[in-house]
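Render Enoyl-CoA hydratase/carnithine racemase in 3D.
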Amino acid sequence: MCAVPHDEVVPPYRTLLLDVDGGVAVITLNRPERRNAIGDGMREELADAYRRCAADDDVRAVVLTGAPPAFCAGADLGAGERTFTEPGAGFSAAGIEVPAWTLDKPVIAAVNGHAIGLGLTLALQCDIRIFAADARCGVVQVRRGVVGDAYSHWLLPRLVGMSVAAEILLTGRTFDGRRAVELGLGSQALDSAQVLPAALEIARDIADNTAPMSVAASKRLLWDSFGLTREQVGARETDIHLHLMGHDDAREGVRAHLDQRPPRWTGRPVDPTRERTSPQKGGGSA
């Protein structure tokens, strides 16, 4: 199923649901019989869904979730002991071709159930993460004879520091959603039924009340800041401000605030300091 608000005919996905409403796209990993394990073309379909959301200016925020009862169980172990021994031509441990951080729009992970291995690292690539309190989470690959993937060795030290990253990656232990938030992997731990509504509330607030160019530029700078000095961040903030101050949205935000009405933005959801490009294979910096 794939529901979009335009005349474009989108082929139905086998492993995902995509729905767009009110500026918010919801991508649902949809292999519930396999606890939404990555398989049957899900990697390629998720990359395609991300690209579609990136290209649609009417989409202001994206929510990634899983068909209950799980978020994503990681790799599909249906091949048994051969699961990790036949990588195939062109193998990459990147997870999917389009990491969530490459989109100009915020991507919110609504981790409504278990998130194991690649299932957790897909969520870590998102900008905001909300966990079900009782979800089991972990980067368990060292217990399967391989290692964490999907840039987990780059993401985790930057999100939670070297010591916590080492505990997660080197032990492969699982922990619940409450502990995930305590460790700094997410912002909220809620009852599983509340996770998607909470993510949608944030996404709709972004879609309704924030300036598209401002959010795009701020997201990109946040992710790029991992590789920038303090001085470089300051220079980027100045450059972004100069671009935004020349657009009517910088006036509209103040007008709407003073008039106590919803803003009417005219900018596109694109960082104005960079040329418009599609999300790139292999990730790159955001």
